């Protein structure tokens, strides 16, 4: 039996935990392949979802990023696995440290971001990648960042895009646009996402446009204060984190991702699969997924006025809206479905062909 451990920083609701969860669901096929998951942080809601699918989860219960007790805790379980596949810089660094003590395990790491700061993350990743056989990235933009900022050799990098199961989103495909125009954001409430730009764009769009924010994070208090200051209380709703993107996508007419940096933007392909048009900023990672005017609309970063113009077109130009929806769904089916992506992971891990259904 193959035994693979997926290691991630935390299992809170978010893009990379979703990637890990969906990959574990599809690779775990006892008695041929056993996939377990570990996280550096305490137990989170994605751990509950994994456990419900009979996937073993170990929380290493780090009290901080510098908690050295996670290494012996990992080393206690690591020898039972033939492969450790780690995600994000803190988990990659821990995996690299563990490789000194468990040299017979195969080490694969994943980088998921193009965010340039903090720069020390890329310096840590430069050291960690020396212990990895392969570095997996979701887009060419992340490959470029890994090469340029962490000096990862090009021959070590494997581009495997994020994926969704299109059939899971089918029921949302034919709903009509709402009378009250609903713009949505799904993701972390983090400075890198530039939510204040989206608030400014919504203010410009007028009273018929409402904004639904799905997610949580350190920016929430600041954003709530901005909403109060600009008297947008009746037009902006904070929903908190949602365990299923389907629940959020069912409540919106356009998805907006106004980030200044993305590694891929999993929510973009989730929205495309659900027939929700996407408007995003023209930044690395995002433009690996969104082709302006084809399967979505792109606006310059930090430009609320132009962002508002793109949102307005996606809401009111029905011919354009239908073209974007059709092209987005076709793009997901061709490039970003598990039917296409799972064989890439199977080849990387040396696994037999498996059914993509979780």
CATH class bucket of the largest domain: Alpha Beta
- Total number of helices: 13
Using the 3D structure, state the CATH architecture of the largest domain. 3-Layer(aba) Sandwich
CATH third-level topology of the largest domain: Rossmann fold
Determine the N-to-C terminus distance: 19 Å
The total number of structural domains is 2
Residue share in β-strands: 15-25%
Number of strands: 13
Report the structural category: alpha/beta
The low-pLDDT segments are none
CATH superfamily heading of the largest domain: Glycogen Phosphorylase B
Shape: globular
Q: Which value, in Å, is the CA radius of gyration? A: 20 Å
Q: Helical content, roughly?
A: 25-40%
Largest sheet: 7 strands, parallel
Major β-sheet strand ordering: 3-2-1-4-5-6-7
Average pLDDT metric: 95
Compressed to H and E, one letter per element, the order equals EHEHEHEHEHEHEEHEHEHEHEEHHH
3D structure, described in words:
- The longest helix has 18 residues, at 318-335.
- The protein folds into two domains: 2-163 and 338-349, Rossmann fold, CATH 3.40.50.2000; 166-335, Glycogen Phosphorylase B (Rossmann fold, 3-Layer(aba) Sandwich).
- Helix 4 (89-99) runs parallel beside helix 5.
- The two termini are 19 Å apart.
- Strand 2, helix 2 and strand 3 (57-59) form a beta-alpha-beta unit.
- The protein has helices at residues 15-27, 45-52, 70-77, 89-99, 119-128, 140-150, 195-205, 220-229, 245-249, 266-273, 304-316, 318-335, 338-349; strands spanning 2-8, 33-39, 57-59, 83-87, 106-110, 134-137, 157-159, 181-186, 209-214, 236-240, 254-257, 278-281, 297-299.
- It is an alpha/beta fold and 358 residues long.
- 47% of the residues are buried.
- The strands form two sheets. Strands 3-2-1-4-5-6-7 form a seven-stranded parallel β-sheet, with helices on both faces. The protein has a six-stranded parallel β-sheet with strand order 10-9-8-11-12-13, with helices on both faces.
- The chain is globular, with a radius of gyration of 20 Å.
